[in-house]
Amino acid sequence: MEHQLRRETPLVEMQGVSKRFPGVLANQNVDLVLFPGEIHALLGENGAGKSTLMNILAGLYHPDEGTIRWRGKGVELDSPRAAFEVGIGMVHQHFMLVQPLTVAENVTLGLNDGRMILDLEAVAERIQLLGRRYKLRVDPNRPVWQLSVGEQQRVEILKLLYRDVELLILDEPTAVLTPQEAEELGETLRQMTAEGKAVVLITHKLDEVMRFSDRVTVLRDGRVASVVETSQTTKAELAHEMVGREVLFRLEREEVQTGSLILSLRNVHALNKKGLPALQGVSLDIRRGEILGIAGVAGNGQQSLAEVITGLRTVSEGQIWVGATEVTNQPPLTAIEAGVSYIPADRMGTGAVGTLSVADNLMMKSYRRPPLSNGQLLSFDAIRGYARYLMESFRIAAPSPETPVRLLSGGNLQKVILARELDAEHSLLIAAYPSRGLDVGATEMVRRHLLAQRRAGKAILLISEELDELLTLSDRIAVLYEGRIMGIFPAAEANIETLGLMMAGEAIGNQIDSLVKSNQQN
Amino acid sequence: MRLILEKRLDIDPRRTLAIRALALVLALVAGAILLLSVGVNPFATYWAMLVGALGDKSALGQTLLKAIPLMLTGLAVSVAFRMRFWNIGAEGQFAMGVFATSLVALFGPPALPWLPQALWLPLMMMASIVAGALWGLIPAALKAYRDVNEIIITLMLNYIAIGWLEYLFYGPWKNPEGFGFPGSAPFPPYTWLPMVAPDQLPRVHWGLIFALLATLILWFVMSRTRWGYEIRLLGENPNAARYAGISIVRNTLLIMVVSGGLAGLAGMVEIAGIAHRLQQGIMLGYGFTGIIVAWLARLNPWGVIGVAFALAVLLVGGNQIQISMGLPAAVALVLQGLLFFFVLGGDVFTQYRLRVVEEGKELA
Questions:
Q1: ipTM for the complex?
Q2: Residue B2 C-alpha, separation from nearest chain A C-alpha, in angstroms
Q3: What is the pLDDT of residue A495?
Q4: Quick one: residue B39, left, alpha or beta (phi over 0 = left, psi -120 to 50 = alpha)?
């Protein structure tokens, strides 16, 4: 049927591709056909094998079994260079750019055109030409560290276009973009496909699949679950294919009476790791039973905001109160004892210790008190019992409490952190990107827990890059841009357009100002 | 076809042991080839080493005597390494322990003659622990408050401490009745560490008891207490530890008090148990060897005891073959080197496995 729709020869045919990692079968007998001129979405939960499959195509992994054909001819892709030479390039989730070098230098890096002399001006000229053609505006002579995340992504794409690739693979490209930037990226991709190039979009976001793609391949547990024309399917159907069961999209969000003031920030300034201003006069309040959502493109001070409240980062000016306790520039323990629970964005780096057991990770916040310890002495029976109890009530799938957490899947790791932070005594919950990278099922669970927290009268600071999530969960939304709050307004009155503009740093007229003022008077 | 190293997902203690055993065998085989190539019977040599280190009471005593300071410095280093505080300075902390012990033993009794003689040994012990701890606190404080690299500071402080001891026994503390030999006057006999069982194990002093006690306490603290858990968190992931409300500054200082204190105590038992005076040859590099001990023992306190003893067997046995087989001292060193090479090299395979990849057959 597909061949009736597209009469051209396929660009890529992957047949019976399998890839094994120690203990995991990442891809199992996968067939994938890509045609010139299509945007093909590769949809799947975390760990479904999307990135592995594309890394094989980009020459980073070697398949254990299977064949790859390019324009009908068998090819061996044993290095990224070999893939480039064929015409395949990939933009990874973590950009592979050299920060101190300029855009032009980055683009030409690793390019072996046989000439001894590097003509950067010619490179820059061609970058500008490509930039105009594909709407990828970026100054070729600026060093990469000065660019925003969105611009860096454009450089990555330009790198591939410069090498004349015919197939572009983009791994979760919109995670770091504002809605407007995502829309612009969509235009760029359409321009490419209009010229006969093919694009693979790796994603787990259904909206994106519906909006951008021509066809979808759904992967589940390393196997192809279905291949469909996007126009012939629905979000619910795709979600079902992806998870293997029905998924509820509606979450019950009841009316909750807000209570006393729990978190209060007044004119908070802070520097980031590089010593540059990360927060520039942030003031906000959260009450009991309220979720305040923080919207913003990653890297606009969200991390620092969570860190100054939890005592992990010092404040250069301003004050922070949690209930009746001032936590400004106090050690992290003060914040914990004042009732702050924190689900950090960097789960393995901050939220958990990979080499230690599930039990050791679950006790991180409560080991100081009975029954887990008496004085200095740890009680192992109590610790094991506590771990079993949390594993059961949060349905953490791990062989035993003694299993090292690095062996858990992303969803189960997040459950460990969630269980620990929600079980610790707290009045304020800071959740930074709590559903990032999680599959549909785990995301749903995280959101339910957040709403349950709200019902239980906790104050919640929710940092997220998913506007959908912010709009469904939050009572109020604050937009953070370059360490400043651009506005705080009720989620019911927010629309994605305005939010997007504010996330890009545009102050939105008087309407917002008045909202901010009325908010401050509350 | 191609060989690749793949990270193992599980680390099995039994496999680790098997790999160690195999490494030992390979080291012995390699050593045998070497010995054969110079015309020496390897079996006779190995047998002579074993007999020399364990063959009779005096040999065993000699070996234990060698193992005691290695146990204590091994423990000292391993405790700091558990927190990823790279204390290369056990040698210097050992030297400061020697210094404090000598100070108390030489000048205490004349200054306070009315103190009961039995008090001097405990005082020397305390002095050595405090001195080692203070010497260890210097790099700890620099690291905790100013983020100064501890490897460089601990290493440099070693040479200062060693130089300071040399200055003392060549200069102001030199025994006027010592016929010009560099060294202090002997300590009064009641400041000598008593022997554990003079008839069964000649010369083995109470340091052995201290080392075993220290091992027991450290094992208990590290595996059963809140503080041990905090150190484990800090060692495995300092960011997560900070996030859990654990103070890095406080624990860096604490861990170096323990580490430096143990190294200082090692200095005390060495000088009060064997030499009984401050003299040339007191610094034999036990602080540095302690690093190897800690590493081979994977920072496990009981492992330290085993490795220290095994290393002592090698050292004493190596010395013995010089006498019994008439082999040059270098042979013992070469055998030692081979053993480290195979054991440490083999460690790669406790964390990685070799996999053979067939290439070129699957792609058309």
A1: 0.84
A2: 12
A3: 78
A4: left
Yes or no, beta carbons of A368 and B360 under 8 Å apart:
no
pLDDT digits (tens, 9 = 90+) for B42-88: 898 889 888 988 988 888 999 999 999 999 999 999 999 999 999 99
Measure B238 CA to nearest chain A CA, in Å: 8
For A15, name the nearest residue in chain B, comparing CA atoms only.
Answer: B363
Residue whose C-alpha is closest to residue B330's, from B31, B130, B91:
B31
- C-beta of residue A154 within 8 angstroms of C-beta of residue A168: no
Structure tokens at B158: 């070693």
CB contact under 8 A, B362 and A336: no
Average pLDDT over residues A214-222: 90
Who's near A115: CB < 8 A, 6+ residues apart? Answer: none
Name the residue with tokens 């008593």: B194
Average pLDDT in the A61-89 region?
89
Beta bridge pairs of residue A478: A294, A488
CB atoms A378 and B226 under 8 Å? yes
Dist. CA A170–CA A164, nearest whole Å: 16
**pTM, to two decimals:** 0.77
Q: Residue A477 pairs with which residues in a beta bridge?
A: A293, A489
* Domains delineated in chain A: 2-243 (3.40.50.300), 256-339+427-522 (3.40.50.300), 353-425 (no CATH)
Look at B229 and A367 and tell me if their CB atoms are within 8 Å.
Answer: yes
Amino acid at A451: L
Q: Are B33 and B300 in contact (CB under 8 A)?
A: no
Note the pLDDT tens digit of each residue in B234-247. 999 999 999 999 99
H-type alpha helices, A363-508 = 380-393, 410-423, 440-455, 467-473, 496-503
Contacts across the A-B interface (CB distance below 8 Å): 88
**In the structure encoding, which two tokens stand for residue A282, read together?**
């942030």
Q: How far apart are the C-alpha atoms of B210 and A389, rounded to whole Å?
A: 42
The answer, yes or no, to whether residue A245 has pLDDT greater than 70, is: no
B170 and B184 in contact (C-beta within 8 Å)?
no
For A143-146, which contacts have Cβ atoms below 8 Å and span 24 or more sequence positions? A143/A99, A143/A100, A143/A101, A143/A102, A143/A103, A144/A97, A144/A98, A144/A99, A144/A100, A144/A101, A144/A102, A144/A103, A144/A106, A145/A99, A145/A100
Q: What phi, psi does A353 have (nearest 5°)?
A: -115, 105
**Which of A23, A349, A376 comes nearest B226 by C-beta?**
A376
Task: For residue A201, give both structure tokens.
Answer: 């979009």
**Which residues in chain B have Cβ-Cβ distances shorter than 8 Å to A17?**
none
Q: Is the pLDDT of residue B358 over 60?
A: no
Instruction: Return the closest-CA partner of residue A88 out of A190, A196, A173, A198.
Output: A198
Residue among B4, B243, B352, B355 with most chain A CBs within 10 A, to mutate = B243
Which bin fits A10, alpha (ψ -120 to 50), beta or left (φ > 0)?
beta
C-alpha distance from B241 to closest chain A C-alpha (Å): 8
Q: How far apart are CA B297 and CA B306, in angstroms?
A: 8
User: Quick check: A326 and A391 in contact, CB under 8 A?
Assistant: no
Enter the tokens of residue B190: 């009641």
Tens-place pLDDT, residues A410-460: 788 999 999 999 999 999 999 999 988 777 778 888 999 999 999 999 999
Question: CA-based angle A49:A55:A61, to the nearest 5?
Answer: 100
Residue (of A164, A173, A240, A221) closest to A200 by Cα position = A173
Q: Residue A430: exposed, middle, or buried by beta-carbon count in 10 A (0-12, 13-18, 19+)? A: buried
Partners of A424 on chain B (C-beta within 8 Å) are none
**Residue A423 token pair:** 């079980």
- pLDDT at residue A6, rounded to an integer: 52
> Which residue of chain A comes nearest to B8, CA vs CA?
A22
**H or E, element range at A15:** strand A12-21
